[in-house]
Amino acid sequence: MPPTAEEIAAGQAFYTDSTLPNYDLRVLTLSNPLIWRCPTSRLLRFFDTHVSANHLDIGVGSGYFLDHCIFPSPQPRIALMDLNPMSLAYAARRIVRYRPETFLGNVLEPLDPPTAGFDSGFDSISLNYLLHCLPGDMTAKAIVFDHIKPWMNAGGVCFGSTLLQGGVTRNWAAKLLMAHYNRHGVFSNRHDDVETLEAALRARFSSVEIEIVGCAALFCARL
Ligand SMILES: C[S@@+](CC[C@H](N)C(=O)[O-])C[C@H]1O[C@@H](n2cnc3c(N)ncnc32)[C@H](O)[C@@H]1O
After folding, report:
1. Using one digit for the tens of pLDDT, what is the confidence trace for 79-98?
2. Is the pTM of this model over 0.85?
3. Is the CB of 158 under 6 A from ligand 1?
4. 3-class SS of residue 26
5. Any idea what the CATH number is for the domain that residue 150 is in?
6. What is the distance of C-alpha 151 from the center of its chain?
7. Pocket flag, ligand 1, residue 129 (CB < 6 Å)
């Protein structure tokens, strides 16, 4: 069954002008190392490894990784896409030095050229901590990979991370916090496991790598 408009809205409603300034402290400084057991420094290293000078970030949040990663060029082309106008504006302000292109849109819908507004493809596309916010099971939410593929240039890479419940080890705090976020629709990852994520990626990409760090799967896929 396709997700309802309410479920889709719930996955982005948490990110507001009052929560975004605290996101780095709450999620990146505290939850990542202590609860999800996936240190932000590990995610940043992963970002640095795969980001290109022609990059699209989807589900931008506070824009921390774009602000701190090392682009392979001093003047990268960066595009930001998010369903939430507050996240989009917050992240764009944070990296205004790169003059990012911004697109308001739902990644669960096809990114047709008129909708997306992009005029050319990307060498890298990141989906960091996005999938666990999307409603539906992993098979359903993997439709986002179909939507981004037409925007990947030949040789391009899609990479990101997502918090899972299956195929990872969760401490009691991770179980409690995930249950809390799932109850409120902030997360929808009750049925997300590493096997289904890997199958969804392998069905669409020729090369796939997944590493589990704490409760997170760090994935990287090429056409
Ligand atoms: C947990 S934050 C990720 C932040 C950032 N990528 C990071 O790793 O720090 C999830 C982001 O995904 C966005 N989002 C949620 N549902 C979305 C959808 N259907 N389409 C596009 N963006 C969405 C939210 O608005 C939010 O900015």
Report:
1. 999 999 999 999 999 999 99
2. yes
3. no
4. helix
5. 3.40.50.150
6. 16
7. yes
Ligand 1 centroid to residue 174 C-alpha, Å: 20
170 secondary structure, DSSP code: -
Query: pLDDT tens, 132-173?
Result: 999 999 999 999 999 999 999 999 999 999 999 999 999 999
Pairing of strands 207-213, 216-222: antiparallel
Ligand 1 site-directed mutation target among 130, 132, 134, 219, most atoms within 8 Å of CB:
130
| 223, two tokens | 């056409």
Residue with tokens 């990110």: 15
- Amino acid identity at 4: T
Parent domain of 104: 5-222
Q: Strands 54-58 and 77-82: what pairing? A: parallel
Q: How many domains does the chain have?
A: 1
